[in-house]
């Protein structure tokens, strides 16, 4: 089906504002700009009731003025249409450090004072409001979790559009207005996220209105999109599938009229698209509108300082006037600048915004700063979860049966989607089928509103009504998921371990957002971000060295222990138990590492639930030290490392029957951290009981070995902890050969154990030689036949 034809600029009302409306809109904007500048500079004298003095100025001038006037300009124009059309809207500020331009209208519409009583709508509240901005113990210069109405901090460089679309999915009445900074627009994540319009269903989803704010400069350089021609810029966004509208200039009266007309046209156009699709039931892909706002950087600020251009140039990016406490000329320029907004006309004698301006703001939850979608936990409903035990793999004994670990999880997710068809989505970069989660397509196909070819009917699983989100951009998917979660819904994201590093920065930002939100009492809990890492390092023997990197876990443990969780389930039933737990949780980032290929299965469901609940435990069936102090502790974390550690245990027991070995498996990686360092950490007594005080520990780990040392370095027996993991060695190997190269294979582990046990150091020489011979045979076999020896590849627990 052909998309509806775009409307032309001739449809726009040229002067939609009456003289009175124009004057009041401009006055309200002046108030916003006064507050924005005041936040950056003023420590006292908030309404300039006396001449400005050096002692009224903050000692450190922090903040960014350049983008702020444009942000508040957009904000108040959206407010106008919220009032006129009763819009349900939220506002995302993409430009970095743009908080002054958002905090100002948030304060003026009253929400800030309702939440923070000491920031009352009077001169004393305004003084406190100014002081706490970019001040020790106060708030930062981004739209942080402390900012009412924010789900996006800004300064994240490239995620605003994807966050906006994530918020709009399954919110049919919501309009998400998102301002994109022109510096931000140069990033790869942002450039790709424009394609999200191919995934927005006008029947069941809300709408996103992107506003590209071209003020021309980054910190000290021009921006690319501001220096290409109007024609090229228009064609760029037409190529992305949008209908671009332009608001350009610097004169406030003209710009207010332009913005009022264009924004209203865009809102009405969005409504027409939605009404048509909902009336006909045909979810076609419209050419959604977007706006290019070209205004001066540092608009309405100082035009020139010390002979240098400031307004409309990069020098207005941060603090246009510095050294005002020491430089009387700059202090005078600052006072003239602030007084140019005529605060005496905007605020009454008590410091409150005058009534005729106050009425311009929406009321109650129609205020974008008070919209519950921007505090998504208020709207969140718990998932309806089927019983995960119904998907269990039946086992008669451990280590005898192989199965694909993620296949039953796909069935579990399939039924979750069926039971939660308006608040749960699965995200993955073109890999859900590869990750053996393709049963989800029986509940819902992949969202797709671009064109179709006849052959798509044969297995492509595409549908405009689909709820599985697939796009080959981890950035966009992560942004969608974050926006979806932060507005009160649930999701699940799977990706290849080799490529999860693409979202390192996004993970960092979301983890910090969650950690900060926990300290903001009015923020309601949101669903956890659940991330399955599969196609792991130990099964990237076919893709080679470039696809072998388990280091995302190292990134995760850098973040606050209040928000991060890491699980390494060794088999199907443990994976199901962990996934069920994670999907119920709130305010965490749950990282689950589990490979998709066939692996040995160890625990029946009852045993798996107990093991995962503890997070760490002795596998009695794999140990022979009951009633004795062990000679050796063999430990593992991860599916493939567990198999090799078990095989090493068997080699040792077969060759040294008298040896007492305790086998420990770790599912919850944070159990290794002392209880003082992480909520899941074991007490020292429990750790010592498991790992002993002085016996050798051979720990076979999924990731880089030093991570285990980092987590457990304070433990009593750390000196005897010997970790084997990935050591940056690999190529096009067979699975066992890859393990041998990194010394995580059964033979290397058994040899290491012999070397660590004084009683075997000499007597074990013959066995060590035999094990090394077997390693050589394995490698030679792989080089000749291209596969591992069947007796090694299909090894089973023999007891």
Automatic annotation (TrEMBL):
- The answer to whether UniProt assigns keyword Cell cycle to this entry is no
Q: Which domain of life is it from?
A: Bacteria
PROSITE patterns referenced in this protein's UniProt entry, alphabetically: PHOSPHOKETOLASE_1, PHOSPHOKETOLASE_2
Residue span, Xylulose 5-phosphate/Fructose 6-phosphate phosphoketolase N-terminal domain: 17-378
Q: Does the keyword Thylakoid apply?
A: no
Give the GO terms filed under biological process for this record. carbohydrate metabolic process
| Catalytic activity, EC | 4.1.2.-
MF terms (GO), sorted A to Z: aldehyde-lyase activity
Query: Which cofactor does the UniProt annotation name?
Result: thiamine diphosphate
Q: Which UniProt keywords apply?
A: Lyase, Thiamine pyrophosphate
User: Residue ranges of the Xylulose 5-phosphate/Fructose 6-phosphate phosphoketolase C-terminal domain?
Assistant: 596-797
The family database entries (PANTHER family) matched by this protein are listed as: PHOSPHOKETOLASE-RELATED
The family assignment reads: Belongs to the XFP family.
Name of the protein:
Probable phosphoketolase
From which source organism is this entry? Crenothrix polyspora
